[in-house]
Amino acid sequence: MLFVLPALAIYCLFVVYPLATSLWGSFFEWKGLRMRGFVGLDNFARLFVDPSWPKLSGAFAHNVFWFAGIMVLQNGLGLVFAYLLFLRGRGTAFLQSAFFFPAVLSPVIVGALWRLLLTPDGVVEALLHKLGLLDGRLTILGDSTWALWVLIAVDAWNWMGLPVLIFTAGLRQIQPEVFEAARLDGAGAGRVLWSIALPQLIPSISSLTTLTFINTFNQFDLVYVMQGVQGNPNFSTDTLVTYFYRLAFGAEGAVGITDIGLALALGTLLFLLLTIVTIALLRFFERRTVRLT
Amino acid sequence: MTNLDIAYHVKRLPGWVVLALWMLVVALPLYILVVSCFKSTAEIYGDKFGLPTSWTLDNFVNAWTKAQFARYMVNSFAVTGGAVVLTLVVSAMAAFPLSRYQLGWSSPVLAFFLAGVMLPIRLASVELFTLMKSLDLLDSRLGLVFVYSAIRIPFAVFILANFMRVLPRELEEAARLDGAGEGRILVSIILPTIRPAIAIVAIFTAIAVWNDFFFPLIFIFDDDYKTVPLAITTFIGQFRTDWGMVFASLAISMMPVLVMYLLLARQIREGVGATGGLK
Question: Of A136, A251, B9, B157, which residue is 20 to 30 A from B175 by alpha carbon distance?
Fold first, then answer.
C-alpha cells in the first residue's frame, strides 16, 4: 500500500482535486478568483443568453465541424493510406514512420510552420501561383469562411500518421483467408475494403473516433498559435477551450475581465459532454463489434 | 516480365501515386523549413523553393544568442526530464502492488487511475492555478514537473501494471525466499524484465511533456522559466519579420524529438499500435 501512495497523492492533488473543485465551483458566484455565495445554476443560465450565447454556440459549432472534418479528412484518408500500404506490404514501415513524424511534433511547431507557409507572400501562395490556381494574395487565414477549414486541414496533416498506424495494425489482425475468399469471389479492392475489412475494423474505428472526439473538443493549441486566442478572424475559428481560456484567464471582451463563474460552468458542461459522449461512443461500437467465433 | 506481371504492376500504380503524393505533402513543408533556416530573410522572400545560394548559420546563431533560445531549451529539458523520471518512479512503485498482489482494493484503485487517462484536465486549470499559487509553484519548473507527472501517471500505471500482471509468479518467489525486500524485488527483478513497457512510458511521456504548451502558458510568466513551445508563440509575434530566425528556432526545437524519432521510430510505431493511440 505504501508503494501506491506517492503516485496516488500526486494524481489526487494535481488532477482529481482541482477537477472536483472546478465542478463544485461552477455553482457559486465568483469575484475574480474569490468564491462567493452559492448561486445554483445561475452561471449555467448565463452561458445561454447574450453576451455568451453567440460565442458558445459558435465555438460549439466549430468543434462539431472540426470533429466531422477530422473524421473524413484524417481518419478517412488514413484508412485509404493504411489499406494501400496493407495491400502492398513493401515499404510499409518506412512510409508509416514518415507519415507519423508530424505527430511527434508539438502542435505549436506545426501551427507556427503552417502559419509561415500560409501567410500572404508565403510558400503556399507561391506554389499556387506557379500551378496557376490563384492570382493575387493568399488571404485564406484571414477569411472567416475558410480559416476554420484550413486549421482542420493542418490538424489532419499533423495527426495523419495515427489512423494509418492504427488501421494497418487492425488490418493485419484480420485472418488472411477472409481476404483470399473475397478475392476468389471476384471482389475488387474497394469492395473488399468496404464490405469485408471495414466491419472487422470496428475496434480501430472505435478508438479513433473516441480519440478524435476527445482531441477535437480539447482543441486549443493550433487556434492559439495560428489565429490567436480570440479565434480570428471575428471568432470564426473560436473553440470551446479557447472560449474557456478567455473566460478563465481574462482575454474575453475588450477590457479582458475574467468571469470565473462562467468559465467553470462552461468547464462543467464540457466535462459532462466529453464523459457522456465518450462512454456512448464506446458502447455504440462495442455493440457493433463483429466477433468471429 | 510477362504481360500478366505488367498488368499487375500497372494496376498497383495509382495506389503508389496516392501514397507518394501524401509523402510529398508531409515532406515539402519540412523541406521548406530546413532550407529556410540556412537562408537570409531576403532570400526566403525571394527564392522560396530552391536551396540557399550561400548557406548561412546566422539564423541559428541569432536564435541561440539574440533570442536566448538556449535557456528555453534548458527549461524544456529540465521539465521533461524531471517529469519522465518522477512519473516512471512513482508509477512503477504503484503498478507493482496493484498488479502483483491479490488485494481487494487493487482493482478499484486501478480503475481510479485509469479514469484519469481521459480526464480533460485543462478544464480544471482555474482551480489548478489557485492551487499552484498557494503552493508557491507558479513560475516554477518544479511546478510543471508535478502537473505533468500527475497527468501522465494514469497512463503510466495502466501500461506498467498490464506488463507486470503477466510475469510468472516464480520470478519473485525465489528472491522473496532469499529474504529480498519488496523494493529490492521491484528494482532488480520486475523492472529489468519489463524494459519495453518502461521505454513506451518514457517515450510517450517525454513527447507529451516536451510538446505541451497549455500549462506553461498558464503557469509561467517569467521569461527565465519559459519552455520552448511557449517561447515559440511569443517569438512568432515578436520576430515576425525575421523569418530566418523563426524558422531556425522551429528547427532547433524539433531537433530533440527528431533525434529520438530516428532512433526509436519502430518502438514508437509499435507503442502506438499496442496502446491504441492513447496519448
Answer: B157
Per residue, what are the HEC states of B209-245? HHHCCHHHHHHCCCHHHCCHHHHHHHHHHHCCCCHHH
pLDDT at A119: 87
- Pick from A16, A88, A263: which is nearest to B126 by CB? A263
The string of pLDDT tens digits covering residues B66-77 is 878 899 999 999
A34-38 vs A28-31, strand pairing mode? antiparallel
Q: Which residue has the cell 495527426?
A: A159
Mutation to test the A interface, candidates B8, B17, B22, most A Cβ within 10 Å:
B22
Work out the end-to-end distance of chain A between its first and last CA atoms, rounded to an integer number of angstroms.
41
Q: Could you please report the per-residue DSSP string of A122-165?
A: SHHHHHHHHTTS--S---GGG-TTTHHHHHHHHHHHHHTHHHHH
**Ordered DSSP codes for A225-284:** HHHTTTTSSTTTT--HHHHHHHHHHT-STTTT---HHHHHHHHHHHHHHHHHHHHHHHHH
d(CA A189, CA A155) in angstroms, rounded, equals 29
Q: What is the pLDDT of residue A256?
A: 61
CB A222 within 8 A of CB A107: yes
In this prediction the ipTM stands at 0.90
Cβ–Cβ < 8 Å for A99, B261: no
DSSP states of B74-135: HHHHHHHHHHHHHHHHHHHHHHHHHHHS--TTHHHHHHHHHHTTS--GGGGHHHHHHHHHHT
pTM for this one? 0.92
Q: Do B211 and A7 touch (CB under 8 A)?
A: no
